[in-house]
User: What shape does this take?
Amino acid sequence: MSAQLATHENEVEAFNGWRTLLVNFALLLGGVAVVVLTIVVIGGGAELGGVRATVQIVGGILIAAAAIVMLAGYFTLQPNEARVLILFGSYKGTVRKSGFHWANPFYARNRGKPPAQQTTLMSAATEALGMGPRLQTKLSLRAHNFNSDTLKVNDKRGNPVEIAAVVVWRVEDTAQAAFDVEDYQSYVHVQSESAIRSIASHYAYDHGEESETTLRGGGDEVSQELKKELEVRLAKAGVAVEEARLTHLAYAPEIAPAMLRRQQAEAVIAAREKIVLGAVSMVDMALRELDAKHVVTLDEERKAAMVSNLLVVLCGTSEASPVINTGTLYT
Assistant: This one.
């Protein structure tokens, strides 16, 4: 089975609408004038051949009818807006220049029906009358924001997490957006959520291996990987991704309390490690200073007792109550 060939945009220019409008009115008025003058001349009894009169009347009617048909060819484009030109199912080009334009009135005004959605009684009635929603040939080239729903996925370690992201995107190739996918806006939404799920499964929420990027700690790197994933997925729809960034990240409710207790325990352990390291450094400094300045000479047993007392004071969770020794160190 052969792969689908990508459609590529062909930018074209439409006629200036204001100039064409003058020609349009001139043709309309000219055709009406020919018919009226011919009838007036015949009614006045002037000699005018039957064939000639018929040709003039038919010609005037055709000119006026053509002018009326031409009125359907006018359209306007705002800045950062484009229109794809479709003639009897064939893509003829894309107009990107903003302003008032005129093009072939037989160019299609829509690209068909949107994807099947939930059908209601009202939508079924409008569809039966041919008034249902249609995909327009005008496409917005402005930047769009897509804020995904909060998704529940499993991270790299299998822990359920909640994640959401915002994606800034815009249409880059109008032909691909209009013809290579059914509805490019719906395509962006579905593929964005799929990319978010895929990225979340590649990283651990936190506490990865040494130098391992995590969802919580590697914000910029995770965002770049998400953007790359989206660019690959949305290239088929002619969509460029400007930015992609996580907006919500948390453990799922069923494991959040347990993970919170683990984080609290790890925080306490980390704090204790720093306290112990600081206390040992202070005790070592105190002993070296006493020995260097010959303040007091202590044997190993007294040094051990001093170290124990200092560590109790420095590492304790409550303030120590000092006891004054009025005797000697050895009593």
About this structure: The longest strand covers residues 239-251.
